[in-house]
Specification:
5 helices, Rossmann fold, 5-stranded parallel sheet, alpha/beta
Length: about 160
């Protein structure tokens, strides 16, 4: 299953939905993660907050291919996208294992294929390097075999990048 998480305005909704199985708009119409870890222990992979991100752990956990479309924010995800990723912590468990010679949490849903990040907005070379490192670490942590980062000069290039 291909899932797209994006922070673009609604004019892109239809085009993005045509390119994947599920698309999730990081539109800020949800609460930020409270850090209670209930999605790890009390009710696995389900957030206690009753908003549109309640099932985000299951959505992200079942994605073979996760595509994140985000505006650059100093070499990192936009605040809205970061909020969605924070709320998906329940894709892992509180138990630990080694992956990539580093300690990580065990995966609740197993391994995945592709973690792809499409970045738009002004970005320096140093921010590009930071984004590549961040995406690679996120991919390993969430059990993705491959990681790609694409930097767009113009959002008109988006459809061809998906």
């Amino acid at each position: 299953m291909k899932v797209i998480i994006y922070d673009l305005d609604h004019q892109y909704d239809e085009m993005l939905l045509s390119k994947c199985d599920r698309a999730l708009a990081a539109d800020g119409k949800y609460a930020p993660c409270q850090g209670c870890f209930g999605c790890w222990t009390k009710h696995p992979a389900e957030c206690f907050m009753k908003d549109k991100l309640r099932q985000v752990c299951r959505l992200v956990g079942h994605a073979d291919e996760l595509v994140i479309v985000t505006k650059n924010l100093y070499g990192g995800y936009s605040a809205a996208v970061k909020n969605v990723l924070d709320r998906s912590i329940g894709t892992s468990t509180p138990f630990s294992t080694y992956r990539g010679r580093l300690m990580h949490h065990t995966l609740r849903y197993g391994k995945h294929d592709l973690w792809k990040v499409i970045v738009y907005g002004e970005i320096t070379e140093a921010e590009k390097a930071t984004f590549r490192d961040l995406a690679k670490c996120n991919a390993v942590n969430d059990g993705y075999a491959r990681c790609e980062v694409v930097f767009l000069e113009d959002l008109a290039e988006l459809e061809g990048s998906l």
